C-alpha cells in the first residue's frame, strides 16, 4: 500500500548579534608635581665686642715719660740753646777774667761762687702745673655681618584631567537566512532534508 506523505520544511529569518561590552581599561588621577628651590635663609651676623682705646701718652708725658721723637726735639733744641748761652756766658767770663784778673783785690773764686748762687737762686722757684689725663674712648658693640634671604618658593604642576582609557562597547547584528516554507510529497517515507 502506498502512503503519500506531505513533507514541510520551513525556516525563519535568523538574526545574530555580536556584542562587545564597554569596559574601563585604566583610570588614574595624575598626581600634582611640586618643584621648589630649597635655599634656606642664612646669616653670618654677630655682635662685636666693645673695645676701649686709652691714649695715655699725654699723661705719661706730663710725668716725664716721652717718646724718642719728643726727646730728640726737646733736648736737641735745648742743647743748641744751652750751647749758645753757655758759649756767650763763658766768653763773657773769659773776657772779664782776662781784663780784671790782674787787678789787685779781684778774687776770681769769689766771682765763681757768686755766679753759682745767682743761678741757684734763679732756679729755686717751684711751679705747679695741671697734668693732662689720659684720653679714653669706648667703642660700643655693633652688629656686623650680612643676611642672605632664602628662596623656598614652590611651583605646583597639576594635570586638569584624569588619565582614562575607556573601550567603547559595540554591537553588530547579522541576518543570516531568510524565512521560507517548502512543501512536497513523498511516498512511504518522510524526506526531511529536501
Descriptive notes:
The protein is an alpha+beta fold and 194 residues long. Among the domains are: 1-30 and 168-194, no CATH class; 57-101. It contains three helices and 14 strands. The strands form seven sheets. The chain has a two-stranded antiparallel ribbon with strand order 1-14. The protein has a two-stranded antiparallel sheet with strand order 2-13. A two-stranded antiparallel sheet has the order 3-12. The model has no long low-confidence stretch (mean pLDDT 77).
Number of strands: 14
C-alpha geometry: rod-shaped
Secondary structure class reads alpha+beta
Number of helices: 3
Largest sheet: 2 strands, antiparallel
Q: Biggest sheet, strands in spatial order?
A: 1-14
Mean pLDDT: 77
> What is the chain-wise order of helices and strands?
EEEEEEEHHHEEEEEEE
Share in helix: 25-40%
* Gap from first CA to last CA: 23 Å
Radius of gyration: 69 Å
Low-confidence stretches: none
What fraction of the residues are assigned to beta strands by DSSP? 35-45%
Q: In a nutshell, what does this entry contain?
A:
With 194 residues, the chain is an alpha+beta fold. The protein has 3 helices and 14 strands.
Summarize the topology.
Elements: E1 4-11, E2 14-20, E3 23-28, E4 33-36, E5 42-43, E6 46-47, E7 51-55, H1 57-62, H2 68-100, H3 108-122, E8 135-139, E9 143-144, E10 147-148, E11 154-157, E12 163-167, E13 170-177, E14 180-187
Antiparallel strand pairs: 1-14, 2-13, 3-12, 4-11, 5-10, 6-9, 7-8
